[in-house]
Design brief:
17% strand; Rossmann fold; globular; single chain; alpha/beta; 147 residues
């Protein structure tokens, strides 16, 4: 069975990727694996902030639970992984380990500022993946035909 790896962080753009990836999986009778990587804020001493760990793990769990609900509602076989590390390497590792047919990612993650600070996960996945990557964006409204 084909497998699609879908990166999620719970952001609106990631949920666009979840919906697009699940819809594609449903149409192709493929299974999905959601990947979420908690991003731990660090102190000025480069140590993770202890109070942020629980909050970030809870956010990751909410993100994968929301994604799993989308898959269950679409009757798509789904699993998830919450992994430590950098988002790009985690997604690529899971895709390689599962021999995924496709990676789906949102066009942005947790906001423009974090995108500038941490780099673009979608751009890095496209540049470094050894398999196809679909960068999902919010669909533009279809303009009504001119009368």
């Amino acid at each position: 069975m084909r497998r699609i790896v879908i990166a999620t962080d719970g952001s609106p753009d990631a949920m666009t990727a979840v919906h697009e990836g699940v819809e594609l999986a449903h149409e192709l009778d493929a299974a999905v694996t959601f990947v979420c990587v908690p991003i731990l804020p660090v102190s000025i001493f480069a140590e993770p902030l202890p109070f942020a760990l629980d909050e970030e793990i809870a956010r990751a769990r909410r993100a994968v639970q929301e994604a799993m609900t989308v898959a269950i509602d679409a009757d798509v076989d789904a699993e998830y992984e919450i992994i430590d590390g950098t988002p790009v390497e985690a997604v690529l590792d899971v895709a390689r380990n599962l021999d995924a047919w496709l990676i789906v990612v949102g066009s942005r993650g947790r906001g423009a500022v974090k995108g500038v600070l941490f780099g673009s996960v979608s751009k890095a996945l496209v540049a470094h993946a050894d398999r196809p990557v679909l960068v999902a964006r919010e669909r533009a409204p279809v303009a009504a035909a001119a009368a």
